[in-house]
Every structure is written in structure tokens, then in C-alpha cells.
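User:
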Amino acid sequence: MIFTEMIQLIELRTINEDNFQQCIKLKANVENENYVDSVIYSLAEAWVFYKDSKPFAIYDNDKMIGFVSIYVGEKNYQIINFLIDDALRHQGLGTKAAKACINYLQKEYNADKVSVPVYLENTVAQKFWEKLGFVYSDNIEDGYVFMRLYLS
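Assistant: Predicted structure:
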């Protein structure tokens, strides 16, 4: 499966035998290692919850730039385990990739709301999602605040 946001040239591609090795080498060094799960952990989690989890490699043209796992169960659409590789950060690719994830959920699942769990102390990520229009909810679980984007 390939899902493309044409304007941004960002693609969400299924992880397979051709891109698996490259995908698991992606790294996102953050202030606290608990802020972002490793790609290996995220893929294992997606395998366990295979009915509701959609893991993707994120591409800019044909260059892998990141990873995302998207939750689609019970019409509770979430962008989880989102990362852009360290070598490519601060180039605007994260914003484009996040918009591609939102677009995917709108087109494939007719989502009217998207949530993203953000570690309570990860103010950098909170600011990132706020710039995209996400707002804080009252839902806090296991040290994460759920930020939400309401779509029309």
C-alpha cells in the first residue's frame, strides 16, 4: 500500500522485506528516551495489535525519512510512535509527514478527529502538535496527555 499526499511529496509506505532493515535503523534522539518508542518496539506492538495498528515508513520522494504507527480501532484514530530520523530533523519534514498522516486518516477512514498521545513532560512535541492545530484534552493516561485535532 502506498498513500501519497501529492502536494507535499510525502508517502506513507507499508513496511516490507524491501525496507524493513532501513526502517529499524531510524533513530530519534530526544531529551528523554521514554518520549519515543524504538521502531522495533513499535513494529512488535503493531504486530500484536495487527487489526487496529498500521505501521508505515515515511518517505520524501524515494528517501525514507521516518516512521509512524497509526491506530485505527474503534474509530479512535491516533498518530502514535511518530518520528523523523535525526539526520533529517529541522527541515520541515515532520510537519509535512504529520499532515500526510492526518490526510491518510481522513481519506481512508473518514476521520473527524485525530488524537496523538504526548508524554506530559515532552513540551517540544506538544508545541509541534499545537502548531498543526492539535489542542489539549482532559484525557491523561500513563503519563501521556492526548492532544486532539478536530477535522471538518
